[in-house]
């Protein structure tokens, strides 16, 4: 039989040393083995980025566009948008990463945007500029009536706004008209022409308060190539509730202030021999006053039948068709007894002066007792329409 080679036995001490070496190299419990591998480097986070719309250097930006500033990789800490010394209002969203302007821009204006954001990678700052378009045509408010500084108005006062040019997109412009009252009541605008719109409340203004009117038309497109260029604001002061009631049949005029009778006046109204000489019935508003006022018969010249030319004192206008409350010393004999005027409310000189002295534009004069109604567009006869009818003249009526 072939011989079998004998295995050589390793000494126990050598086996133990080999096992220790193997164990040490696998467990990692020993000293690290030198090599060329150094591991991954931890990269620093990038700083946040900021984007702005309209873009840097943009020209002819539409004024109805909004400025939007957004941050990526961080949160916005500061956003300031300026045009000259004016700061544009805006709102930051809940995430703090997006800011949006809340007002229209002004045409033909350069805007500067300054923004700052922070994130794990540090802060980022950005400055950007853009310019809005210059309109072909400018829309502006040229008159607000009544709006004389410090003037006290009656509780029936309208707000009459006149523009410099026809308004094509009336709905857009009307949405930019704001009325804020200390004692609010419902109200509505009515367009009476392409250039004029009038605000009237559903019921008389509550007395003794301030009303703020603002036309925020800057940046409003009112027609092709036409943009509003500036905002206009006025504060209106509503005084006491002066309400006068004229009864043509009993020939009296009772004047109340905040419900209290202040004066009862004998009067003489239109003699009603023709429609022209018939006093109009309905809710009139006082519009203006003069002392004296020259009154001339309409449509007649000297020598014509019915021609007259009278100089009257202490006259308060209540319609555009020539009706006043005024002094009439020549008809004292008829006041309180008969109607002998050409349509005006004739009063004793002392009563007419008192009424004149207590006059406010927008005071209410209610006339009853004739068969000729005041037209709603005769002077400030706006209260002749129901509020339902009045609202039909709004460009926003549904």
TrEMBL record:
Pathway: Cell wall biogenesis; peptidoglycan biosynthesis. Gene3D superfamilies: 2.60.40.3710, 2.60.40.3780, L,D-transpeptidase catalytic domain-like. Coiled coil: none annotated. Residues 1-30 form the signal peptide. GO terms for cellular component: extracellular region. InterPro entries: Big_10, LD-transpeptidase, LD_TPept_cat_dom, Transpep_catalytic_dom. GO terms for molecular function: acyltransferase activity; peptidoglycan L,D-transpeptidase activity. It comes from the Bacteria. Pfam families: Big_10, YkuD. GO terms for biological process: cell wall organization; peptidoglycan-protein cross-linking; regulation of cell shape. Residues 242-368 form the L,D-TPase catalytic domain. PANTHER family: L,D-TRANSPEPTIDASE, L,D-TRANSPEPTIDASE YCIB-RELATED. This is Lipoprotein-anchoring transpeptidase ErfK/SrfK. It comes from Thermopolyspora flexuosa. The lineage of its organism: Bacteria, Bacillati, Actinomycetota, Actinomycetes, Streptosporangiales.
